[in-house]
Write a structure and sequence with these properties.
Length: 156
């Protein structure tokens, strides 16, 4: 479980450091847009009150707390599942990524009332209107890794 905890902690710290650097130090919260390597990498400020891509977004404060509770419940469930199953390293790493990313977004919801999204990437004539953050990437990669790597060491 040390590996999962270490990956979760590193993911959480990287996410929060990136958000402080981009949103506050570079003042993206007031500038709203910074072209870094257009069109491949841009910073575009978006306050996400929903799940991914603003899905289930709602201005009511109750939805904020529902999403916080849901993220915490999923994180605890994944932690307990990995602890009980004692899977291989790739599953523990994937779980750490998912948990760290979820906790990073929970911190945003508690502090700001919404998740700070700022990464925007487009390529090859495709314009992506959405922003995301490092926590979102970690959640996606972690969930994908759990699907791909879990269940590989089961005996029939």
């Amino acid at each position: 479980m040390r590996l999962t905890a270490a990956i979760a902690a590193l993911t959480l710290v990287a996410d929060q450091v990136a958000k402080v650097a981009v949103v506050h130090l570079l003042r993206l919260d007031t500038r709203l847009a910074i072209d870094v390597l257009p069109p491949f990498l841009n910073f575009r400020m978006a306050w996400n009150r929903g799940v991914n891509f603003g899905l289930f977004a709602h201005d009511a404060d109750v939805m904020r707390w529902v999403l916080i509770a849901l993220a915490l419940a999923i994180s605890v469930w994944v932690w307990m599942w990995v602890r009980r199953e004692a899977p291989g390293a790739m599953v523990r790493i994937s779980a750490g990524l998912l948990i760290g990313g979820a906790l990073g977004n929970v911190i945003d919801r508690v502090i700001y009332g919404a998740v700070a999204d700022f990464l925007n990437m487009s390529c090859c004539g495709f314009h992506n209107p959405f922003s995301f953050n490092l926590a979102d990437v970690a959640i996606f990669v972690g969930a994908f890794g759990l699907v791909v790597f879990s269940g590989r060491h089961k005996t029939p």
